[in-house]
């Protein structure tokens, strides 16, 4: 959790990078604005021949409900690894590989609508289930249904915004990385926006959620490590520029 003190106008004007979202990452300052709660998955997977994931949290929720030691254990999920998975990004696919799951397709653009277009041809004559958040932005489900894919859906987790103390607000000279639209929404609900803030979106859906008045960019690649490196390069450029003034 971000623990920096309130901004001191006499302090250095050096820009710093802050990652904003649902979890902390090593080697970068983080501000957790949202809490993830996994929900019990009670579906029996009867007749299902494809699994769709657009979030690592949905995968984690499935792992939780398929774990015999979990209070929410569902024995009908025991063979989920044998069902081919369609996953939105390589990072999420890594979790599936780690658990010896069968991965049939990995999206290359990590954006809901583009992922939907990628998998529609692959899901013809298939019976998929989409494990998702309670609230979604991309409308991937509607896109698949409109394409006549006989989609089933399970709400696997809930993303809840947190109420934060004002002393956690990043200083004006900050490059803020938002990992999801929900992170940006929670941030602006907690704090006023400083005109000096620079926003970095991890992907197109997050960028589209930004106010049009922001100075904002999209990470060259839709992953947290790439977004951090991109934000650091922007901060370095600004700090070099300020040092010359």
From TrEMBL:
InterPro entries: 4pyrrol_syn_uPrphyn_synt_sf, 4pyrrol_synth_uPrphyn_synth. Pfam families: HEM4. Its EC number is 4.2.1.75. GO terms for molecular function: uroporphyrinogen-III synthase activity. It is an enzyme of class 4 (lyase). Keywords: Lyase. SUPFAM superfamilies: HemD-like. Residues 43-228 form the Tetrapyrrole biosynthesis uroporphyrinogen III synthase domain. This is Uroporphyrinogen-III synthase. It comes from Helicobacter cinaedi CCUG 18818 = ATCC BAA-847. The gene is hemD.
